[in-house]
Design a protein that fits this description.
The complex is a heterodimer. Chain A is an alpha+beta fold. Chain A is built from 15 helices and 14 strands. In chain A, helix 5 crosses helix 6 and helix 8 packs antiparallel against helix 12. Chain A is globular and about 70 Å long. In chain B, strands 2-1-3-5-4 form a five-stranded mixed sheet, with helices on both faces. In chain B, helix 1 links the parallel strand 1 and strand 2. Chain B is globular and about 40 Å long. Classes of the chains: A alpha+beta, B alpha/beta. At the A-B interface, helix 4, helix 5 and helix 6 of A face helix 2 and helix 3 of B.
Chain lengths: 433, 151
Amino acid sequence: MSDAGGTRTIEVDYIARVEGEGALYIRTEGDRVEDCQLRIFEPPRFFEGLLRGRAYTEAPDITARICGICPIAYIMSASHAMEDVAGVRVGGALRELRRLIYCGEWIESHVLHIYMLHLPDFLGYPDAVTLAKDRPETVRRALRLKKAGNSLMRCIGGREVHPVNLRVGGFYRAPSRAELDALVPELEWALGAALETVALVQTLDFPDFEADYEFMALRHPEEYPFNEGRLCSTGGVDVPVSRYDEVLSEAHLAHTTALQSRNAEGQPVMMGPMARYALNRDRLTPRARRAADDAGLGEACRNPFRSIVVRAVEVVFALEEALRIIRAYEPPADACVPVGPTAGTGYGATEAPRGICYHRYRTDGDGIIRDAKIVAPTSVNQARIEADLRALVEPNLALDDTALQALCEQAIRNYDPCISCSTHFLDLRLERR
Amino acid sequence: MTPLRVIGVGNTARGDDGVGPAVVERLAAMDLPGVTLLCRDGEGTALMAAWDGAQRVYLVDAMRSGCVAGSVHRLDAARETVPADVFHYSSHAFGLAEAVELARALGELPPTTVIYGVTGADFGAGDRLSAPVSMALEALTERLAGELRDA
């Protein structure tokens, strides 16, 4: 870091409290940001390459290993894509079980990010362990809430991380009514705790910052989206997911191992909770919408620091949805719809906690994968994070390097970036000239 | 669950990462009254739930260190900080080390918390332990069983 001759650089060699390994480099000259690079240096993992030659039935379990916190997103997108190839639709109780386990993933992922990764920024703690010393009850609530999400994952998926009970067409075994009913009392407690979470985070001190985002998310005729919907944006996009590649294109940039996605006009888009909320507020449950209204989110939230509030609202939604599904659950006659090998191309897009997880596969008549494309939401959000940082740094150049670096890291965590997923990504360097 | 617990931490499908569960499997074949044996994959909140209410907990986990493969380190977590870079777990950096420190901050760490770390050689796919870790297994199991009987 320096402050000589009007040039200033901020470098963070390893960004904490994000999943995976990345760095940030910012160079300013006078009062202008000359360069801003979110550098994802975690090596690419070549999942798309290793999927070639594997059976269509293997894609969900293989791609689940891309991420320990959002495996359901990968399992679901891969399964839907393979079902799309075969022209099979999974409905009824199996479809509801898919939404239910997705609720579990959102709850555990969002709660971990809200309390353990993001809240320390707002309350002035270096990490959740230090926060726990001063506010043990807050952290205990977080742990119990996360456990409620874990319990859904374990009950339906067989285990919390990298569930083993899901497959193309549905599940290996459907849970009994009694197994799901046993989760209800803790989920009811968790719903109350989720509402307390919204009440807590809405009182935080948010930096005064807004941007003119193009929000992109799935939109379904009736539901707040998990598994299904059209690819929609506040910029006028409204297409089936099979046209994803026409809407977003990827390019390799020298400073990052994660491909960056931009829209047809070459502009970044934002995916994730704020995008889902802006496009699907009317699909929230009444209680979740009321919590959003009480928190002052309005029709759309354009301050990314307030994404923590939107995440908290989505936890309320996920718990209400989970309870609804469990109360109405009738075990399916079969745990799975048969899906045979088919030659063709299939598309799957589902809403991971961080935004749309897109899969495209081409298979041959034996069901062998010949081509695969996987786009994680963090790689789409990457360009948008850089744009936020550029806009945020210029008005805040009066801050000293330590304060400016902390603000930048907080802004990156607004996106709950999953760097491991996106390497198909943080350390910060700020150079002031 | 009894106040005396052993938790084998790791993934049995990833080579030497399965050493913790392998020790638990051997302990299960021994006569150890009053000991609850558990296996966990290393996710932090699940570990905290597993030792909740225990008086004495022994964790066995594979680790990466600069030491020779198969070497065993005994760490008294009630007295020492657990190094996060040695017991690596990637789900948003909330694994064994972070779970111990968070439990300590919350006053929920069992009074006796001992971690046996076994330096692994091969964490590739498969359910087999490497030769150096296999060779360390019996002595470690006996050592831990001895501690449990004296507990």
